[in-house]
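Same chain as my last thread, 500 residues:
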Amino acid sequence: MTLATMLHALDGQVRVLERHGDLGVAVNAITDDSRVVSPQSLFVAVKGEHVDGHRFIAAALKGGAGALVVQEPVSGISLPFARVEDSRKALGFLGSRFYGDPSNRIRMIGVTGTNGKTTTTYVCKALLEALGRQVGLIGTVGYQIGPTTMPASHTTPGALELQRLLNQMVAAGCTVAVMEVSSHALVQDRTSGCEYDVAVFSNLTQDHLDFHKTMEGYFQAKLRLFTGLAGGAKAKKRAIINVDDPFGHRIVECSPAPVWTYGLKQKADIRAEEVRLSLQGTTFTAATPVGTFPVESHLVGEHNVYNLLAAIGVALHEGATPEHIRQAVGTVLNVPGRFERVMAGQSFTVVVDYAHTEDALVRLLTAAEALKTGRIITVFGCGGDRDRGKRPKMGAAAVRHSDVVILTSDNPRTEDPLVILDQVERGVIEARQERPHVQYRKIADRRQAIEEAVREARGTDMILIAGKGHEDYQIVGTEKLHFDDREVAHNAIRQIGIRV
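reply #2:
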């Protein structure tokens, strides 16, 4: 492929300010990482949040780069190059063209929102596979292409990695890609070069304000997925939006594509009626544009009713029948780290969940409250080097919905774990003015905190271990250490004893 051919992908997307040299030069690889430049590759110098790729042009040349795309003016360069208005945005379009525009050869389902993305994508995958589709999955837990699962570098991978994954999916025979689309990825143009068929909005609550600064900035980032449905080569697009969330109404108003709304409380195109919740699962009647039918799921809690409705909307848009959906929903036994039960022969219930925002924690706790027959013992912490504003709010939420709260470390990263706990404790102290009977402890060591919860539990109590879910590591300082809540809880039950 030539540089000129790749630059055509930028037409109408990113302005090319300058062209230099023979643009007919052949390009056999593309990268924005000077460390992996190979002969005849195209090096794209991206101005990132922390690193400016223009500083590594010399290294790219030394590695044998055959052409460059830059954003800043350069001089003394004999290689063919193009200077563009925004090299970060250009990267995705260039990558898409290099890999044969894979998003135009596969159905693209994008799911965004603060909470529920992972579960929604897993259910979507199951429902679409019931239609006989080959489905690739990209998200927080991992990237799946056929029988192969790869660890996730990010919820939404970098622009070039994403295009490469989509190309691999097409080559493997996938006809649909279901992916979580994070707000960071949208702002950082990691999805540039992707054309979506369906965009799903789950909800929007406080998170990532260390990055987006305000809720409005956070919302505008999410909105990009939906405004991006405008134009393009694909037909039969749709937005599927939770209208029980206040931000959902704004997306409905802005969506250039036809909309199906879903919810439990407000009038919606896809609704759940006669909802019944238990520790064994969830049943409800789905009222949809194609009729009403029963749904029986192993997933637990009202929050999962929303996730199921969103996935049902996707499946219906993609041609599923109510019977397809009814049969396929039951095949989703659990989603890793999402209300995942740990069973080691104990009488009390132990649940591990990824909830790491105030809203997600409240959803988890209220689901537990609806099911409990004993006490709720909540173990959680807040990640370091992330949104500090949510810490006291999460502490208060835990007290409002628990009987015992154990504050501990999440991924403290480069922050002092005790400082983080002190900030969470402020919300705990405030909420205990209304619920003074709630006990709480601070145990910075997460293993010890989980063991303490197991010692505390009796009979029909429920332990909720929140924050890390599927993660099998803990980041302390700059070191990534093996740590799996499920494994630690299981061992604690075995070591401390199984009580009735």
